[in-house]
Design goal:
Elements lengths: L3 E4 L2 E4 L2 E3 L3 E4 L3 E5 L8 E4 L4 E4 L1 E6 L1 E2 L2 E2 L5 H11 L4 E7 L5 H14 L7 E8 L31 E6 L6 H11 L4 E4 L6 H10 L3 E2 L15 H8 L4 E5 L7 H11 L3 E4 L11 E5 L2 E6 L2 E3 L12 H11 L4 H6 L3 H7 L14 E4 L5 E6 L2 E2 L2
Length: 375
């Protein structure tokens, strides 16, 4: 691979915006320096736009008309190639609560195709369900909910990077403790849960360290029963993610969550197959979803994932909260990368050359993955 250089950019590095530097890279970032001998180096002119590490989505079901649960290599390729237009350079392929056979097929397909997609890199699987509470199933099909157990994922523990579960259900405690001890690379996340404050705090001591789409599919915060939200807000070590589409969460809720969680807040899309597509009727986990005016709902009005793009989430957070541009970028780069333990998320020597160039409004100009321009 030839060496490339990005010039004339506003580089987001070490929580600062720096100008007048040249970013040199091949598959990895080589250096950020004042002057470079540009002979035999391909130059990319950022033209004064922002340059950051590539965006990472911990929770996305699909995009471009495809869904992880389709269980095909073609679906994963469609999702991967579509996401580059949003600045997303890597993601966790997120499953749904469906039959064990369908889930295992999806897991096997990801396992066989992780390194074969042409766009955004698949970092592994986020298993959202089926180990959830039926009372908080949301758009997940409750008839397929099952007790937490290793049988479903035993052959896929190498690719499972995150599991959303309800810690109050039978079998969850031993399941969480085992995974936390034996497979510490797996992020254990509380979600689709009716846990109260005390149960939530207890699950943190077992190994739960994250909360999935905070506020959604859990009891609301109440001053006498703070629930999951209260427990997450109180614990400085527990991270959380949120869907900043202005549909799942009110702008003031986004502002409050950032004010409390700061560097423990991750932005996700929870996008379904209608992401980057036109309005219409789509499928999510075997259920019909209507997409209209930026909102995806089941026939009963239940929110069914989103059609949010990750760069839009940044735009919303900067517009409606105290988040600076750097804070917002960190919430889709450095923070999720650290949570996953991957060599990504920052513009630093030796890190993967996943890079995004975007304008003042977070519109994507160029997406670079492993040193290759994808758009």
């Amino acid at each position: 691979m030839s060496i490339k250089a990005i010039i004339n950019g506003k580089l987001i590095v070490n929580d600062a915006i720096i100008e007048g530097k040249t970013l040199l890279f091949d598959k990895k970032i080589i250096s950020i320096s004042d002057s470079v001998d540009m002979e035999n180096i391909q130059t990319i002119d950022a033209k004064g736009h922002y340059v950051s590490a590539g965006f990472i989505d911990l929770h996305i079901h699909g995009s471009g008309g495809a869904d992880v649960m389709d269980g095909t290599a073609e679906a994963l390729e469609t999702i991967s190639s579509t996401l580059t237009q949003t600045g997303t350079t890597s993601f966790l392929a997120t499953t749904m609560t469906m039959s064990s056979e369908v889930i295992e097929k999806a897991l096997g397909t990801v396992q066989n195709n992780m390194g074969k997609v042409s766009g955004a890199e698949i970092l592994g699987v986020h298993l959202e369900g089926p180990f959830i509470n039926a009372s908080k199933h949301g758009a997940q099909d409750q008839k397929y909910i099952q007790r937490p157990g290793l049988a479903l994922i035993d052959h896929y523990l190498d690719i499972v990077k995150m599991i959303t579960l309800a810690p109050e259900v039978e079998g969850a405690e031993s399941f969480v403790k085992y995974l936390h001890t034996k497979h510490p690379h797996i992020i254990l996340s509380i979600g689709h849960s009716e846990a109260n404050y005390e149960e939530s705090k207890k699950s943190f001591s077992w190994g739960v360290s994250h909360a999935t789409h905070l506020f959604n599919a859990m009891n609301p915060y109440h001053h006498r029963e703070p629930g999951i939200v209260g427990a997450v807000f109180e614990d400085p070590e527990v991270s959380c993610d949120i869907i900043a589409d202005l549909v799942h969460t009110h702008p003031s809720t986004l502002a409050l969550t950032y004010q409390v969680k700061k560097e423990k807040l991750v932005l996700i899309t929870d996008a379904m197959r209608a992401g980057c597509m036109k309005c219409g009727t789509y499928d999510l986990g075997g259920q019909a979803v209507t997409v209209e005016n930026g909102q995806a709902t089941l026939s009963d009005g239940t929110l069914a994932g989103s059609v949010l793009k990750l760069n839009e989430a940044l735009r919303h957070m900067v517009a409606h909260t105290a988040m600076t541009r750097i804070d917002a970028v960190n919430a889709v780069t450095k923070i999720p990368a650290e949570k996953l333990g991957v060599n990504k998320g920052v513009l630093k020597e030796g890190y993967d050359a996943d890079i995004v160039i975007f304008d003042e409004d977070f519109s994507i100009i160029t997406t670079i993955i492993a040193g290759e321009q994808k758009g």
